[in-house]
Amino acid sequence: MRSYQTWTMGITFLLLLVGLALAGCQPVQTQPASSPTAVPAPAIPEARIEINADGIVVPADFPGGIVSVTVKNNDSKDLDVGFERLREGHSIAEVKPLLDDVMANFDALDEATSDMGSFNPLPAGGEQELIMDFRTGEFFVYSTDHSEGAPIPGASYLFGSFAAKEMVGTVEPQADVVVGLHDFAYDMPDEIKAGEQLWEFKNEGDQ
After folding, report:
1. In the chain, what is the straight-line distance between the N-terminal and C-terminal CA atoms, in Å?
2. For the segment 90-131, what is each residue's pLDDT rounded down to a tens digit?
3. Three-state DSSP class for residue 173
4. Residue 84 lies in a domain
5. CATH for 69
6. Which of 49, 57, 65, 97 is the most buried (most CB within 10 A)?
7. 160 and 205 in one domain?
8. pLDDT, mean over the chain
9. Could you tell me if residue 119 is inside a domain?
């Protein structure tokens, strides 16, 4: 009995040592570190402009800075659509009478405004999107019947004026193609891939 008890105790002690040794060999269980919450990238603010047969609807609170603008042509005919910025020292009140006859007042309008971007044409019932850096200032968008060549003499124009008072858009989109605009010249890649792309036009000239 004594030897049995001793053996039993010895076995128990050995098992205890083995148990402790095995416990020491187990990998340390640690709580996984919580991954930082992903912060979504700032979005480019959006604005929508509707061109109807009787007028142009522009958002009352137009954001400044880099803005994605969608223009919808609700008319039944193709239109030429463009954006103009008022030059410093000029106002909508000054320019508005000149818009009654764009061709006759072309030089005066050129002194008071600067071209920003255009669609030629914007198909009937269609919509197009462009991203522009409006910064802040006063602007107007116009539409007229589409022409493959020079503007149609005596064609009627629709206008919608708006102001961007606060810088909102600060995110620059990633362009697929960059075109540098110089005085009476431009710089762009020799080869362009087919398919839908985002092009960036940078004014690098003196005008």
Report:
1. 110
2. 999 999 899 888 888 999 999 999 999 999 999 999 999 999
3. coil
4. yes
5. 2.60.40.420
6. 49
7. no
8. 84
9. yes
Measured between alpha carbons, how far is 110 from 157 in angstroms, rounded to an integer?
16
Residue 65: inside a domain: yes
Write out the E strands in the chain. Answer: 46-52, 55-57, 62-73, 79-86, 113-122, 127-133, 137-145, 157-169, 177-182, 185-187, 199-203
- Cis peptide preceding 45, ω within 30 of 0: no
Look at residues 38, 40, 45 and name the one whose alpha carbon lies nearest to residue 173: 45
What is the number of other CB atoms lying within 10 angstroms of the CB of residue 178? 12
127 and 113 co-located in one domain: yes
Alpha-carbon distance of 123 to 127, in angstroms, equals 8
- Domain membership of residue 204 as a residue range: 174-207
Tokens representing 79 are: 């239109």
In sequence order, the β-bridge partners of residue 71 are 49, 128
CA distance 146 to 73: 12
With respect to residue 37, please indicate whether it lies within any of the assigned structural domains: no
pLDDT tens digits, 154-189: 889 999 999 999 999 999 999 999 999 998 898 999
Q: How many domains does the chain have?
A: 2
Query: What sign for the dihedral angle of Cα 109, 110, 113, 115?
Result: positive
Dihedral over Cα of 199, 140, 164, 47: its sign: negative
